[in-house]
């Protein structure tokens, strides 16, 4: 193992990418590299990229442009993740100083690719593994989050929604074995973590590769790992959302009372055009299961406005859906045409200005809903997991089990450690956070 080699990594995109980076960092460290926080000090600059929307994709090319000056001083560049898989060898044309381009389905081969990089090769690719059945499992995960342990349980996606790049960038859907997942959960608990987040583009499409557990059974099993107090999972797909998930949340207090269930549109016509494989009614039935649960389950969603052909009346159906579900949070996006996707050839009939207007209408409505929802917590005492400090406000920051940000003051002069728990009485509410005092 050589010494003295350093790398810098920057990560864009979703939770899965963030966790992939934890595994890439662990792998590089195993290869004798030390992580540095400054590009100028690194021998190897790694960009783990996202191409979900056009803006996300542009970021990596801006970054590469900012730092290409370093190439002359001998630094090497690697582009990995979703833009890497999508653009492939075209990245070498756009940015000739890049030496390695690899998609997430090829990370198992990183040690070999790094060795070739060190041997002086300049156009190394890991792009041919999207049809693999294997998942990237490594014991060399360098966990960067001090209070939340991530576990990927399913990789890739087979849903092929009309607007989405993920099936092309992450490849075929493949699940890990539940034994291996549970072993990792125990290792995380042994490290002192009390919160686990299970990850997958469609986490609830999980099919145990050892055939033992359903997704809901896996949730319950992770929730019973000694030492684990909170289990989260993201993202759930409405098509595969089954009632036993709600029953598991009701049965095990360690399973957080929060479900992120992206709907994308409130119009069944638009959902069909998006190839989402469910209708508005199908979706609302799942919402009804959650609303009739014993515990109060917080529900959040993702919405795309301005999908090709979305009429004003169909957009109105989405706004109506917000009124009906009363979400605790909505991530709204303007439709962004993406390479390789079926929607690309649909006429993108809605102007940028109209998309912006619809997004604003949506978010304004949602803000009012959240103001009311968050206000209901006034006077409650909640269990909060500490995440950090906001020194300017003199507040401790954390989250409730429902994943709501809670900022609070404490009588103790010593700030509580990230990952510890506090009981907080809510004294003030906002549309996106709660404030209170430790009791
Ligand atoms: N697997 C998850 C979503 C992953 S991508 C699911 O199926 O729900 C995260 C979010 O990005 C999506 O929910 C969607 O709202 C948004 N998104 C994906 N592709 C997009 C595109 N081409 N334009 C705008 N938003 C998009
Ligand atoms: Fe994309 Fe659809 Fe797969 Fe989600 S389910 S990752 S939106 S293709
Ligand atoms: Fe982006 Fe890839 Fe995640 S496109 S959102 S990093 S799966």
TrEMBL record:
Major localization listed first in the record, in broad terms: cytoplasm
Stretches assigned to the MTTase N-terminal domain: 5-119
Localization terms from the record: Cytoplasm
Entry's Gene Ontology molecular function annotations: tRNA-2-methylthio-N(6)-dimethylallyladenosine(37) synthase activity
Keywords: 4Fe-4S, Cytoplasm, Iron, Iron-sulfur, Metal-binding, S-adenosyl-L-methionine, Transferase, tRNA processing
EC number(s) from the headed UniProt entry: 2.8.4.3
Binding-site residues for [4Fe-4S] cluster 1, renumbered to this chain: 14, 50, 82
Span of domain Radical SAM core: 143-375
Cofactor-binding details, from the entry: Binds 2 [4Fe-4S] clusters. One cluster is coordinated with 3 cysteines and an exchangeable S-adenosyl-L-methionine.
List of residues binding [4Fe-4S] cluster 2: 157, 161, 164
Subunit structure: Monomer.
Matches recorded under PANTHER family: CDK5 REGULATORY SUBUNIT-ASSOCIATED PROTEIN 1, MITOCHONDRIAL TRNA METHYLTHIOTRANSFERASE CDK5RAP1
Summary of the function given for this chain in its UniProt record: Catalyzes the methylthiolation of N6-(dimethylallyl)adenosine (i(6)A), leading to the formation of 2-methylthio-N6-(dimethylallyl)adenosine (ms(2)i(6)A) at position 37 in tRNAs that read codons beginning with uridine.
Name of the protein in its database record: tRNA-2-methylthio-N(6)-dimethylallyladenosine synthase
Gene source species: Acidicapsa dinghuensis
């Amino acid at each position: 193992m050589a010494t003295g080699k350093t790398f810098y990594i920057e990560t864009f995109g979703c939770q899965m990418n963030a966790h992939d980076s934890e595994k890439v960092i662990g792998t590089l460290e195993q290869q004798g590299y030390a992580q540095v926080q400054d590009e100028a000090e690194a021998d190897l600059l790694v960009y783990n990229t996202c191409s979900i929307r056009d803006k996300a994709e542009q970021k990596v090319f801006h970054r590469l442009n900012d730092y290409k000056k370093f190439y002359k001083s001998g630094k090497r560049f690697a582009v990995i993740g979703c833009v890497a898989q999508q653009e492939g060898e075209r990245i070498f044309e756009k940015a000739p100083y890049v030496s390695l381009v690899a998609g997430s389905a090829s990370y198992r081969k990183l040690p070999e690719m790094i060795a070739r990089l060190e041997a002086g090769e300049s156009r190394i690719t890991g792009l041919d593994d999207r049809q693999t059945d294997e998942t990237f499992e490594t014991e060399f995960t360098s966990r960067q989050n001090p209070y939340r342990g991530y576990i990927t349980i399913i990789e890739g996606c087979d849903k092929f929604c009309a607007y989405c790049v993920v099936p092309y960038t992450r490849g075929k859907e493949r699940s890990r074995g539940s034994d291996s997942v549970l072993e990792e959960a125990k290792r995380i608990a042994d490290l002192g973590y009390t919160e686990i987040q299970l990850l997958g583009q469609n986490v609830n499409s999980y099919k145990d590769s050892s055939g033992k557990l359903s997704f809901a059974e896996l949730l319950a099993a992770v929730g019973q790992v000694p030492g684990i107090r909170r289990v989260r999972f993201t993202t759930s797909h409405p098509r595969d959302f089954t009632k036993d998930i709600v029953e598991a949340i009701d049965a095990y207090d360690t399973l957080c009372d929060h479900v992120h269930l992206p709907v994308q549109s409130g119009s069944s016509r638009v959902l069909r055009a998006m190839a989402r494989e469910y209708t508005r009614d199908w979706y609302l039935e799942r919402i009804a299961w959650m609303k009739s649960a014993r515990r109060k389950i917080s529900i959040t969603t993702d919405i795309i406005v301005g999908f090709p052909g979305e009429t004003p009346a169909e957009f109105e159906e989405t706004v109506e859906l917000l009124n009906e579900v009363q979400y605790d949070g909505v991530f709204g996006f303007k439709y962004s045409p993406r390479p390789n996707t079926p929607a690309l050839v649909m006429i993108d009939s809605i102007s940028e200005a109209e998309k912006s207007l619809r997004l604003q209408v949506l978010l304004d409505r949602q803000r009012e809903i959240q103001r009311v929802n968050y206000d209901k917590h006034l006077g409650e005492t909640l269990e909060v997991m500490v995440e950090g400090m906001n020194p300017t406000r003199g507040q401790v920051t954390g989250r409730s089990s429902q994943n709501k940000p809670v900022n609070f003051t404490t009588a103790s002069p010593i700030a509580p450690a990230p990952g510890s728990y506090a009981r907080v009485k809510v004294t003030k509410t906002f549309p996106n956070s709660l404030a209170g005092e430790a009791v």
